[in-house]
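User: My advisor asked me to double-check a structure prediction for DUF3899 domain-containing protein before group meeting. I don't want to rely on an old file, so could you generate it fresh from this sequence?
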Amino acid sequence: MSVVFYTFAVIIVFPAELYFSMEFMIGKKILSLFGRGYLFLRYRNKKKVQQELERKFEGQFRNAGVVLLADIFMALAVVAIVSFVAAVLYFLMA
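Assistant: Sure, here is a fresh prediction for DUF3899 domain-containing protein from the sequence you gave:
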């Protein structure tokens, strides 16, 4: 019984854990790239980028990427809500 369970764990569980950890690492890399690009486009000076990175983002470009992504989603949410309200008002007034 334990041999069957161990074989099942090796075949099914361990590759899944590896897959999800790789997926997490890829997401972490993408967020780091977004954060790095955002900070260098905004401040354009390595010293200023490093200061802001330490002050606002706990020294991690990934945190800057998360903030950028959250800002983008917030802006999209505001646009969607305003569009919905405008559509409702348009159809109520028409």
